[in-house]
Specification:
Elements lengths: L1 E2 L4 E5 L9 E6 L8 H10 L1 H8 L9 E5 L7 E6 L10 H18 L4 E4 L11 H18 L5 E6 L2 H15 L2
Parallel strand pairs: 2-7, 3-5, 3-6, 6-7
Antiparallel strand pairs: 1-2, 4-5
Helix pairs in contact: 3-4, 4-5
This protein binds adenosine-5'-diphosphate.
């Protein structure tokens, strides 16, 4: 599904297979790899990715750091650390929004034109998917309103259920 003049796209796919300028990794603060999408990205990129992330000194929750993509079809990986869900009163919404904003800022600063996001924090970190989807779509839309350099942002859902939640939220967020 395409939105916002084709600048936002929602797909159901494995993010490690996408030929984009950058894929975003839902990492943890160590940046040393983990499960879920983080593990999949490290496996597909190869051991050189870990060699580079070791040099970065970790990453704060809500922030983002860039590396090369190594054996991935993507040129770069932007590693961002989502909040762990603690019930919603620990600044989780703002921290998740910050992940999307900071990732897009880092992308823009590195001349990235096409970027794909997974559903940050909605796996092991337990953030409710609908709430996370609304935050993701609003942050991406607001960023693209003032930025003209990024041509396409792909929301890469993993599975049909997540895809349908994204599409339904997009209809509400974009009124189409
Ligand atoms: P977090 O710790 O931030 O919750 P997870 O990796 O556990 O990170 O989950 C984040 C999202 O990434 C979930 O929606 C999960 O289904 C999805 N995911 C897992 N593997 C992939 C993949 N290969 N491509 C795209 N999304 C993936």
């Amino acid at each position: 599904m395409e939105l916002f003049n084709g600048r936002i796209e929602i797909i159901d796919d494995d993010i490690t297979t996408l030929k984009v300028d950058a894929v975003v990794n839902a990492a943890n603060r160590s940046l040393l790899g983990g499960g879920g999408v983080d593990g999949a990205i490290h496996r597909a990129a190869g051991p050189e990715l870990l060699e580079e992330t070791r040099t970065l000194g970790g990453c704060e929750t809500g922030d983002a750091k860039i590396t090369k993509g190594y054996r991935l079809p993507a040129k770069y990986v932007i590693h961002t650390v989502g909040p762990v869900w603690h019930g919603g009163k620990s600044n989780e919404d703002e921290l998740l929004a910050s992940c999307y904003r900071r990732s897009l800022e880092v992308a823009r600063d590195n001349e990235v034109r096409t970027i794909a996001f997974p559903a940050i924090s909605t796996g092991v970190y337990g953030f409710p998917l609908e709430r996370a989807t609304e935050i993701a779509l609003n942050e991406i839309k607001n960023f693209l309103k003032s930025d003209k350099s990024i041509e396409k942002v792909i929301c890469c859902c993993f599975g049909k259920r997540d895809y349908e939640i994204y599409v339904n939220m997009a209809k509400r967020t974009f009124g189409s």
